[in-house]
Amino acid sequence: MDSMRYLYLLNAAMYAVIGAALLLVWRRHRNQAFAHHMGCSTLFAALIPLAYLIHTTAPAPFDRLGMPLVLVGAISNLLFLGSGVMQLAGRRLPRGVAIAIGVAAAAALVAPDVAGKLFYWPLCNMLVLCGLGALATRWLWSTHALERLVGPLLILLGLNQLLLVLYGEQGIAANIVFGTVLRAAIGTVFMLSALDGALRDAGKLAARFQLLTEHSVQGVVVTDGQRILYANPAVRGIYGMPLGQGNYTVFADLPPESFSDEQLQRQHRLLQEGKLDIASWEGRREVAGGRELELRFEAWRVEWDGVGATQILITDDTERNASARALVHQATHDKLTGLPNRAVLMQRLREYCYLADGSLHCTLVVLNIDRFKLFNQSQGHVTGDHVLKAFAAKLKDALGARAELIRLGGDEFAIVDPDEGNARDIAERLKNACVQALTVPGGEYFIDASMGMAVFPDNAGNAEALLRAANAAMYQAKRTPGTALAMAEQRFEQMSSQTLDNEQALRKGIKNHEIYLDYQPKIDAVTGKLLGFEALARWVRPGIGWVSPVEFIAIAERTGLIPELGAMLLGQACRQIAVWCAELGDCVPVAVNVSPMQLLNRGFLQIVEQTLSETAIPPRCLTLEITESAAVDNLDDTRLQLQHLSTLGIDVAMDDFGTGFSSLSMLRQLPLSTVKIDRGLIDPLPAPDAVAVVKAICQLAAALDLQVVAEGIETLEQAVAARDAGCHALQGFFYARALTVADAGEWMRRQQAEAAGLLST
Fold it and tell me: Based on C-alpha coordinates, what's the Rg of the chain?
C-alpha cells in the first residue's frame, strides 16, 4: 500500500513539473497559446492521483474531498487537453463538444464500478483520448515531424486505460507508469513545438524589422553609446559612409563634424538610466562630399543581443526645411521686388514699438507713387513693373544700413528705421531718390511720390496707431503738387478716422432710413404767394447729431452711395407729394436735387418713371434740379436725359447758375424751365455791380423763356433788389428756413384758405 502511495505521489509530481514547464514556456512566448492549455491540462491531471489518495486514505470527513477533486481534475484535464490539441492544429474546440466531454466524464466518474472493477471512467477516458489522437493524427500529419507524434501518443495514452478496464486495481501501477511516460512525451512534444513556434515568430519579427529598416527612407541606428551596432542603408545614404557593414563602427573614429559622439553618449546615458523615455534633438551635420544637412534625431531604449542599447531614428529635413523657408519667404515677401510685405511691416513695428514707456524709438515712412495708374495705362504694366523694381532698388540704395524697405502693395512702400535720430536724414535721402531719373527698358522716367512720416512714440503709442498716423500724413502730402513729405499730426489721423467713421455710419443711415427731407418755400417775387418747395436732405446721426448735407452728400458721391441715396430721397419726396395731393386736392411743385452721378446713371430714367408710376403723382408737381457743372461736363448725355424727362412732363431747373462756365449755347440746347441764381451772386445785393449781374442773367433767361429763382435771400433789401432785377421767385431765410412736413403742409392749407376767401368776396 505504501508503494502505491509513493507511485501516486510520483505521478502527481511528474505531472506538476511538466505542467509548470509548459506554463513557463507559454509565459515567455505568449503567442504559443496551446502550451498554456496543455500546461493547465497536465496540472489538473496531477490533481487526480492526489484526489484519489485523499479519497482512499484520508480520515473522515476529509476523505469526502477526494471525489470532488477527482471530478475537477479529470474533467478540466480532458477539456484543456482537447483545447490544447485543437489549438496546436490551428483550430478551436467547439463549445458543444466541450460540454459533451464534461458531461460524459462526470457521468463516468460517478457511475458505480462493474464487478468490483473500474470500468466507466477508464472507458470514457480511452474514448476521448483515442478520438483526440485520431483527429490530431489527421490534422498534424502534414506539419512538422515532431508534431506528428502527438496523435499516436494520445492514442497510446487512451489505450493505456485498457489496463484499468481489464485488470482493475491490479493494472493501476502499470497504468500510472505508462501514463506518466506518455504524458511526459506529449508534454515534451508540446514544449518543443512551442519553442519552435517562438523561434519562427522571432524570425518573422527579425525579417519584419529588416524589411522595415532596410527599405526605410529614414536612418535607423542602434548603438551602445560607443559603437554603432546596426545601421540601415538609409544611414549610409545620409552620411555617405559604409556604416553598419562588417565590424562595429566606433564613434570616436568618425569625423566629429558628422557625428556628435558627446551628445549621443549623453542621450544614451539618460535613456539607459530611465530619466528619459524618448530623446529628440536636431542639428546641422557636415557629411561626405562637403554637404551640410539638417538632421533630426529621435531615440529610445531597446534590447540588442541581450543588453541595453539605444535605437536612433534619423530624418533628413534639409529639403523639407528649405521648402518651408521658401514658403515663409513667399508669404512674407513681394514677388515682383523681393521686398518684405505688409505682414513683415507689422511684425517689425510691433518689435520696435513694444515698450509703452517710449524707451525704444522707431521712424515709419509710408510712400505712395503719384498717378501711377495713369503711368500703367499709358506705358503698359510691363514697363510699370520695371519702374517699380527700379524705384525700389533706388530707395534701397538711398536708405541707411538699419532702415528696411517694405512694399505694401501696388505703388505703395514703407520704410522702417529703429534709429531715433535718423528721421530728418531719411526724409532727405528719400526726397533725393525721388527726383532722380529711373532708367528702365524702354526709356527714362521721372516719378513723384507722396510721403507721410510718423515717429514712435511721438506720434503714436503702438504699431497700428503708428501706421495710421503715417498713412494720414501721406494723404496730406498728396495735397501738395510734386514730390512731398508730411510729418504726422494728430489732426490728420483724427480726420481720417472721422471720415471712415462717417462713411460707415452713412451706409447704416441709408439702410435704416435715417435721412429725411425738409421743405424750403419758393415765394413769388411780386405777390408773395407760395410757388413751390425745394426738398432738402437732412441727417440726424444717432449719438452724434445733425450732419451737414454738404458733408454727407460728398461722402455719398465719394463712396458710390449717391444713386441709392438719391433714389431713396426721390421716393420720399414723391410719396409726400401724393399725400399732399390726397389731403389738399393739389400740390405746389416740389424740387428735388439730382447729383451729377445720378444723372449719368443709365438706370436713372427708369427709377424716375417707376417712382411716378408707384406714387401716381402729376408730373407737373415734380421738378428736378441739376447742377451747372453736371450740364457742362456731360452736355450730350445730359441733353438726352433732360429731353426724356421733358416728355414725361417733369420740369428741370439748373441749380447754382452763374458760378461755373455756362454758355448761351448750352442754355439753348438744354430743355430747361428754370435757372436758379447761385447765392454767391445774391449775397452782394443790393450793390450796383451785383444788381447789374443779376439783371443780365434775368434778361438772358427772359430771352430763352426761362423762369429765374434767386436763392439765399436773407434780407428785405436783397428781396427788393432781386425782384426789381427781374427774378420771378425768391428763396431764403428771409421768408422761411426749411420746414418740416407738417409746417409745409400747413403753409399750403393757409394759402388755399386765403385764396378761397378772396374768391368768396
Answer: 54
Asked if omega into 457 is within 30° of 0 (cis), the reply is yes
Separation of alpha carbons 226 and 264, rounded Å: 9
How much is the mean pLDDT over the chain? 82
Type of residue numbered 689: D
Residue 436 CA: distances (Å) to CA of 373, 375, 433, 603: 20, 17, 6, 48
Ranked by mean pLDDT, the top range of 89-98, 334-343, 398-407 is: 334-343
Angle subtended at Cα 418 by Cα 415 and Cα 424, rounded to the nearest 5 degrees: 65
Degrees, nearest 5: CA angle 662-668-673: 90
The number of angstroms, rounded, from the C-alpha of 721 to the middle of its chain's C-alpha atoms is 71
Rounded mean pLDDT, 25-46? 77
Q: Are 725 and 698 in contact (CB under 8 A)?
A: yes
Tell me the pTM: 0.48
For the residues 248-270, what does the mean pLDDT come to? 78
Higher per-residue confidence, 244 vs 258: 258
Q: What is the pLDDT of residue 113?
A: 66
Residues 6+ apart with CB under 8 A from 10: 180
Is the pLDDT reported for residue 246 higher than 70? no
- Bond into 233 cis (ω within 30): no
* Cα–Cα nearest to 268, from 218, 296, 309: 309
Distance CA 264, CA 453 (A): 55
- β partners of residue 298: 280, 313
CA distance 416 to 413: 10
Q: Give residue 418's identity as a one-letter amino acid code.
A: P
